[in-house]
Design goal:
The complex is a heterotrimer of chains A (about 400), B (about 250) and C (about 180). Chain B is mainly alpha-helical and about 250 residues long. Chain B contains 8 helices and 4 strands. Chain B has one domain: Cytochrome Bc1 Complex, Chain D, domain 2. In chain B, about 40% of the residues lie in helices and about 5% in strands. Classes of the chains: A mainly alpha (about 400), B mainly alpha (about 250), C alpha+beta (about 180).
Amino acid sequence: MSYTPGNPVTRWIEYRLPIFGFVHHQLVDYPTPRNLNYWWNFGSLAGIALVIQIATGVVLAMHYSADSNLAFDSIQQIMRNVNYGWLLRYIHLNGSSMFFAVVYIHIFRGLYYGSYKTPRELLWWLGLIILLLMMATAFMGYVLPWGQLSYWAATVITNLFTAIPLVGDAITQWLWGGFVVGDPTLKRFFSLHYLLPFVIVGVVFVHLWALHVHKSNNPLGIDTKGPKDTLPFHPYYTVKDLAGLGVFLLIFAAIVFFAPEALVATINNEPANPLLTPPHIVPEWYFLAFYAILRAIPNKLLGVMAMFGSILILFALPWLDTSPVRSAKFRPIYKQVFWLLVIDAAVLTWVGANPPMGKFVLIGRLATAYYFLHLVVLMPLIGWFERPRPLPESITTPVLKEGAAAGGAS
Amino acid sequence: MKRLMLAAALAILVPTAAGAAEGPAIPAHGWPSDGLFGRFDKTALQRGFQVYEQVCSACHSLKYIYFRNLTEIGLSTDQAKAIAAEDEVEDGPDDQGEMFTRPGKLSDPLPRPFPNPQAARAANNGALPPDLSLITVAREGGADYVYALLTGFEEPPEGFALGDGMNYNRYFPGHQIAMPPPLFPDAVTYTDGTPATVEQMAADVAQFLNWTAEPRLEDRKRIGIKTFLFLLVLAGLFFACKRKVWAKAH
Amino acid sequence: MAGTAPTVGHGGEDETRRDFLYLATGAVAVVGTAAAVWPLIDSMNPSADVLAASSTEVDLEPVALGQRITVVWRGKPIFIDHRPEAEIAKARAVDVASLRDPATDEQRAPRPEWLIVIGICTHLGCIPLGQKEGDPRGDWGGWFCPCHGSHYDTAARIRKGPAPKNLYLPPYAFKGKTVVKIG
């Protein structure tokens, strides 16, 4: 379909580079299921979080020094002397947490409503790639202030690579640029921390491209049948995304202005001391579950494999889930088992925050075992043996027939 | 229901994730700068600076504070200049390549008691007195902890094995601290005439250190209130627009 | 075309109310965006420590009559010339109208014995010679820029050579008899 813009200037541009038609087709009259609920806001929120991180990050980088002698002081320079430096730093620091919170909810939405199932397998994979890139970016970002935890978390995590048989030590020295985490490590982490977000932007673009092929899933999990089932993205979902953005910004502001260091470990306000290991090395909250999985397995190499495996297994999810039905709305057994996974993730996060002693050891192991059991055993079995509820004919049918909750948009 | 459980689970997790508290429970003191509308008590900050200058600065540096920052706690520019001028600062090299000393200026940092950590350790039996600029954000309990520590020196209980040269403190993790009790009654003569009890000096210096750790606290809270109220209005408007647009779809 | 676009409102009043809401929301959003963008831009402005070093006080007591010193202000060299009578007289005996960049000596040095100028040639930015013993001072006894041959007189006004303007005056004020605050 061709789009004719309003005035001669835009027409001149459109003929040479059809950007207005592109925007119109992808963002304005783009057909979106009419029954999306607020769980569908989190994709756009993730995009906005990315933009906020890049904007604040680029400006902060104008004042930061990636030198082990200067890094900690340069952060203080930002906090004390740079105009609004304290605000930009707190936004960037807490923005990372907001970004992960929003992305985790976005992922759980996909798990509940079967958004990873055919034909959206590649969309799901691209999302997981974005998650992995985010985790690398966040990890390196945390090292930059060069506090006690920056240094020691970097030491612990880069040491994981020594678990690789034969080449582990060589790879780790290559990562460090030395024999321990040090100035060369800091400098290259800064370079990569600046680079990766733009790689993420690229993958997000492909993620959205894949999305726009078969369009969004919806709470009923059934395909849209025609124009009756959809609404144009603008103004319906632009305005709904703005409403979600308002709530997001309120929560973000509450944290930035009134509890800016609530999610940070106090000991990272101590400059890095390579000769003194802090008693409890803890990563940021969004890594705690993976940290718990790592520590649950007493073997170094297997622990590392389990930790990375916990994300890699998700790539297989479209095939591990054998159910022909997408949405948990019509899957009476899976609907309840899903919450077990959510609780499991919460338990793993709690275990990761605590020292690996006493009750936390057993609980951590059970929770790790459940995680893999859920994905590798339960999901295939449930898919095979569950009797799903009957699906409605179309998205609009339940609304027209009853006007009741079964398929209505919220 | 399940969503409530999830929310509750997350609410418990966040404080745990931030790091479990170590050592004995620290009593909450409560400071004027606490809370949504908290502001610094500038007279307390000035007294606290006196305590720092006359007691703590013998061993503890305050590297991120400059003489010009003292105008933020209510001293005049001239007062800050006078305090700066009392300090001899090394500068140079001059045209002959020699270093020289000159009186301090507003743009200089506060003087350090020791030129490097090794000298600090040598003068303190191997212990390193930490820089105090960020101490209230680098220790669990913050200013409450600093206050508790300074007022928590006492005789060790029966059977407690106190190391050589160490001092017993109720709130220091492990209870043995290399620092001897720094405060005693009237250690400082306050220029505003406040009686200098140990509790008073501890409270003043704890507030002063709250300021050195976060000099922009008042800006943060002031701008925070305005921003939050603004966003409340904006979110409300966005919601109203959403409902208006969607009214046609139902 | 997908779905149904919102239909036009039934009554004029409904439409006005709806439009007002959108207008109001848009206006508030624009204000919010501007307020959000401002810290990003302002953070690039000079920071507090740079601003603190933005003025310099100089004690003129040790500068003897006839002596010239150089101090640094905002990273730039400042020439301070304790001018003897002869130099002042020479500067005043000039037909101001014939100057490339007309300025009287009184304008250049309100306290005639102290000439305070920014020591950067107004041609292409070199630092003119004349501050040290033995330096060439150019044909008018002031300063001489070796890069492209600009000559400045004893009031640091351009007399010969490619420079378009006199050496610039920094903002300054005397505090008492012997201290000047620059900036």
